Amino acid sequence: MGVAKVAVSLNAELLRRLDALVARKVFRSRSEAIQKAVAEKLARLDRNRLARECAKLLPAEEQAMAEEGMAKDAAEWPEY
């Protein structure tokens, strides 16, 4: 996967803190730190979206559908 260069503006305090992390070898570079921060934020947004969608589910309906599917499948299962 290729990379693209982008310009990012940070306020002085964020830049100071970012540079301190690089100096302490938490990250190899500013780029690595920013890439990881963006990836983490995007993953968090995805999880939040999934949680919001799951909250829309009605537990009773989900349970009924699960049991209906299991009953149909159970008839096809071999005897043990």
Outline the structure in words.
- This protein is mainly α and 80 residues long.
- The radius of gyration is 24 Å and the shape is elongated.
- The chain starts with 11 loop residues before the first helix and ends with a helix.
- The chain has helices spanning 12-23, 30-55, 59-76.
Topology summary:
Elements: H1 12-23, H2 30-55, H3 59-76
Class per helix and strand makeup: mainly alpha
Pick out the low-confidence regions: none
Summarize the biggest pleated sheet. none
Shape: elongated
Helix content: over 70%
Q: Mean of the pLDDT scores?
A: 86
CA-atom Rg in angstroms: 24 Å
How many extended strands? 0
Count of helical regions: 3
Number of domains: 1
Q: List the helices and strands in order.
A: HHH
Strand content: under 5%
- How far apart, in Å, are the first and last alpha carbons? 49 Å
